[in-house]
Amino acid sequence: MPITQEELKTITDTVGPQTAQLIDSKLKEYDAKAKKFAEDVVKEKGVVTEEAFKEFKTASDSAINQIKEAAVKQGTTLEELAIKVTDKVAGTKSISQVLEEDKEELRKIYQQKNGQKTYMVQTNSAGKMVMRPFDDTSENKTTGLHATVDNIPAGAVASIAQALDSATLLRVGQGSPIQSQYRNTPWLFDLCNTINASFNGGMSFAMWYDELPKVGSSQITAEGATKALVQYLYKLQSATYKKEAALVGFTQEFQMDFAQLESDIMGKARIDVINRVNSAILPNIIAAATAYSTGADFQGGDPVPTPNDFDALAAMAAQVDDATFGAIANVALMSTFKKYRTGVLKNTQGSYLNPPAVLNNLSFVGNPDMADDDVIVGDLKQYNIILRGGLIVRVGYNGTDFAENKYSAVLEQFYFDYISTIRKPAIVKGPDFATVKAAIAA
Predict the structure, then answer these.
(1) 247 and 265 in contact (C-beta within 8 Å)?
(2) What pTM does this model have?
(3) Domains of the chain (ranges plus CATH)?
(4) Is the pLDDT of residue 382 over 70?
(5) Per residue in 426-436, pLDDT tens?
(6) CB atoms inside a 10 Å sphere around CB 259
């Protein structure tokens, strides 16, 4: 016997649509089996007796009613349980009832202008709004939203956690972009006379002749008189090469898991070796430069009143010009801050000053490798840098590398740097602005 729509609605309201549909499906299946049974009996015997039909109907009705009653009873039991649980949590008193009961306590809070009382408003099983006192310090709040952090809501724990070991965590970042440190550049290479020479072309040393002051001089000679003897002298000079090198080691695990970092390290090592060559040459240029010594000549009996940085640069450029018979200075080396400070010089009215025309040939070059007030002016093309071959990279095993699953990389740059003694006057050091300004001041 199929379940009626009214009965289905009752079961649905009691136990929910899914359970009701399951019961209805089972009853229809049972009814279909009953009909088939009757058809089989008729087919076999040709007729069903009244007694057999009544017996079958009674048994069928009894089974169906038992299923219906069990479903309704179970649904009622579940509903009653839900009501009891919901009402216990939500409470049964209306908002007005709770406020009326707590009016004295609320009055005290109002009069004292201090304190608070917390309530929770919910809908109970009957669909009515109810309210109850709520203690947010003692409520169990361990159940919360699915979140990646704790305390959503307060007291709840994150729905996902990790137990990755430290080695795995390191490898999680593979492929992330690399933010590199700021690095200096081989800035001196462009300013000096830099030459790339063959590695195996016999450059075991650099050699050159310095011309020494000649002995004797030409003279006006009378007819028939002996001419003046003149002798030119030379001195053979040499410089040996230097080697800037670095050793970088890797484990096999690092090479396998951090190929991106390995490549970056090798690239940075190449840059740093070349930059270190540049940094090692700067002290040699400073040591070889000629100290400023022509303050009195620059004054010419007329001291410079309140000299500024432009005056100091002009005085140093004048010494270069004078010592080299017109080989004009082309660069002024100073610290980065000094370059910018010189660029904002002002007159007594606060107007910015432009460098005087006599300094038009000078390029102001600032770099952090120069000390704060240090200054060099001159023709740096007279200083020679010879790179013997390019940067050499050797990869192999060092010591116990093979036994320890490691390998090493060596980076080397061979180079010469020197200046002829007779070319040193083309580069003048202050050594600083303060010293030069004091030498030309009144």
Answers:
(1) no
(2) 0.64
(3) 5-89 (no CATH), 95-133 (no CATH), 180-215+231-442 (3.30.2400.10)
(4) yes
(5) 999 999 999 99
(6) 12
